[in-house]
Design goal:
This protein has a single domain, classed as Orthogonal Bundle (Tetracycline Repressor, domain 2), CATH 1.10.357.10. Helix 5 packs antiparallel against helix 9. Helices cover 73% and strands 0% of the residues. By secondary structure, it is mainly α. The chain starts with a helix and ends with a helix. The chain has nine helices and no strands.
C-alpha cells in the first residue's frame, strides 16, 4: 500500500477512536515510520488530511448506498444499522460523521463545510429510504420522512457513543433495531 493510502487508513483509525483533535501528524508519521515532514508531501496540513478523509468517507458511502439500492426500504435501514454496528465491533469506534460533529466547533471552515456535505449525503439517503418505506407501507404512514431520517441517524450515532462509554459492543445495534421496530407498520 502506498504511503498516502496508509496515512489515510491510520488517520481513519485515530479519528474514529480519538477524534479529530486527538491525533497529530506526528502520530501518523510515527506509525508509518517516516518523518513528519515527509507526511507533508502528501498532505500540506492536517486540514488537508481531514478533507481527504471526508472525501473518502463520502465516496465510500456513495458506493455502499449504490450496492444496496435494489433492497427494500426496511432492509436498507437494517444494512445502515449493520454498517454503523461494524464501527462498534471494531474497537468501539465512533462513526466518522459523529466524530467530526463532536469536534465541529474547533474545525477550520473548509472542513466544517465538508463535514456538512457528508452529513447531508447520509441524511438525504435516509430521507429517501424512509419516503420509500412510507410509500410501500413498510413504515408507519404518519411519519415525516426528514424528521424520521434524522431520528434514525441520531440514534445510530448516539448509540455508538453510549456503547463506547459502557464498553458495550451490542448497545448500538440493539438500540437502533428497537427504534426500527417502533417505526414499522
Amino acid at each position: 500500500m502506498e504511503t498516502k493510502a496508509q496515512a489515510l487508513e491510520i488517520a481513519k483509525n485515530h479519528l474514529q477512536l480519538r477524534g479529530y483533535n486527538g491525533f497529530s501528524f506526528q502520530d501518523i508519521a510515527d506509525e508509518l515510520g517516516i518523518r513528519k515532514a515527509s507526511l507533508h508531501y502528501y498532505f500540506a496540513s492536517k486540514e488537508d488530511l481531514g478533507l481527504a478523509l471526508i472525501e473518502d468517507y463520502i465516496q465510500s458511502f456513495q458506493q455502499w448506498s449504490e450496492m444496496h439500492e435494489d433492497r427494500e426500504p426496511l432492509e436498507k435501514i437494517k444494512k445502515f444499522i449493520d454498517m454503523y454496528n461494524s464501527f462498534s465491533q471494531d474497537g468501539l469506534k465512533v462513526c466518522p460523521g459523529g466524530v467530526f460533529c463532536i469536534d465541529y466547533n474547533t474545525l477550520p471552515a473548509k472542513l466544517k463545510k465538508s463535514v456538512c456535505q457528508l452529513q447531508e449525503q447520509i441524511q438525504n439517503w435516509l430521507t429517501h429510504v424512509v419516503t420509500e418505506g412510507i410509500k410501500n407501507k413498510s413504515l408507519k404512514t404518519t411519519l415525516k420522512p426528514k424528521e424520521t431520517a434524522t431520528l434514525i441517524h441520531a440514534t445510530t450515532q448516539g448509540a455508538l457513543q453510549i456503547g463506547r462509554m459502557q464498553n458495550n459492543t451490542k448497545a448500538m445495534k440493539a438500540t437502533s433495531l428497537a427504534l426500527l421496530t417502533l417505526l414499522q407498520k
